[in-house]
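From the shared-data thread, chain only:
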Amino acid sequence: MKVVIAYYSATGNTQAMAEEIQRGAAEAGADVTLLNVGDTTAEEVAEFDVIALGCASYGDEVLEEYEFQPFYDELEPMLDGKKVALFGSYDWGQGQWMHDWQDAVEAAGAELINGKGLIINLYPDADGLKECYDLGQTLAQS
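Structure, as tokens:
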């Protein structure tokens, strides 16, 4: 199983999540690639069997709009039929950005792994890291 984890992280919180998801997937036997969205293209990411996308909540509960949102906008038409997981951190709010993102991914024709995204307040604590690890394990079995 070829898994990609593509993320954007300004503060390191979402990166920590991505790295733990990678660890979980690798330990479950997946061929996993970890990429910062600034170092890849939507076309490259779309080549993978399973895609995990990570971005924190910004501003008025939206995806980061200068780097991640343009990347996602390019990728979205290529998600039809793909298995996709979403994750990210937040500082405030109720997670509306994740609900909106989930809706967009499903509307694009993707299968949302676990049926919802994984959100963690600020830097993941031990329980949050376990959730990330478990998501990685699930990715490897998707």
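The helical segments are 13-27, 42-46, 68-75, 96-107, 126-141.
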